Amino acid sequence: MKVVLSGGWGYGNLGDDAILVSTINIIREIYGAECKVVVLTYDVYETKANLTNLVNLEYIYIVKNVHRIIVRNACSIRFNKFDSYEAKYLYRAKFWFRAVRLVKRVYYKLLARIRERFFSMRRSGFKYFESTPEIYGADLFVLAGGGYFNEGWLDKTDSVLLELEFFQGQGIPIFTVGQSIGPFSKDGKARTVYSLLRNVTKLSVRDRRSFDELTAEGIRATIIPDIVLSEKVSNYAKSNTLVIVVGSGGLDQNLEATLLEVAKMVEKDYGFKTKIIVSRRWADDCFAAYRLAEAFKSENVGLDLVIPRNFQELQDEIGVCRVMISQNLHGLILGWRASIPGISLNSSRKFESFMTQTGQQNRIIRKGDTREKIFKCVSEVVTESYDVGFESHVEIFTQGVKKNLTAFFSNHE
Length: 413
Prior knowledge:
The chain folds into 2 domains: 223 residues, 3-Layer(aba) Sandwich (Rossmann fold); 167 residues, Glycogen Phosphorylase B (Rossmann fold), CATH 3.40.50. Helices cover 52% and strands 13% of the residues.
């Protein structure tokens, strides 16, 4: 058995790296430990380093994805990877750094567009697959996790569509699992996506709105929560810590001030310390985290700032905390599977579905919500973190996700 596995790995997004590990574990459990897994990634060296010590690398082959072939180094400029020291240094020189990075991004994007226009992206991608021996003899193609079908990252979307088109042309069964579809403002892109998704063998999405939109188009799909939620982790000794996961969007001044008050409140009332962390090792995420840390320190709030090097370090840093406030979905997911209740600072479709699936829908902070609501949510999650029944609730949830995924993968004909 040989499975070709594609997704969002190699871009410094540690949540997507968690999806990769969980997907490999599911595949091996169902198809056997000797099943060959060909991992398509943007950065071969990064993905190999991330998988080392987390999965057995025997029978795993890591090769470049089509996106790397098409855009070359464009994403290396867009998604930089930093540690804590570099984040601090670059934050202080952020205007110069961002100017240089913008010039490089434009340069590589122009190169990518020239390649698409004059050298045919489709022909380049197909030629690459046809000349990659690891692809030969594939029995199944799996596109796992993430939101790759939208207009926010068009060159990635086009590359994923190219992969689907190639394997459909080869007559190889295709599973797309854990997707968030859309939203689309351009009918042309939506039609292209839907036309290819109609022909996949099996399709699961992780949010209700994607499911409803696919159903309206006559496309059969099922809802299964994020594949990372199929595995529970429970080997962490909890400390009285509030962890705040910061994203590239940063925080507006009002929300930043509110989080500062929250940190002071949990320190005074519960003896909690605060940890600021990122789940993506991207420049903008690191800048946002460092800015928030500087604001906290200016008010003498004790905290730790952590820029994880890999997915496992992120999980370990989150796992020892008690409560979470997050701008990023996989911060919430990695917290939940470690029995950490959370508060979402994002109300987009995938966040709404996750929070509803886990019974935390009243803890989504929306624009215009009062400080009183945020404080109430914080008090609730602190109380819930000490509930002896909460861990059992998480265990039952993850077992249900695992059962649904096992059924999904069991028949690939």
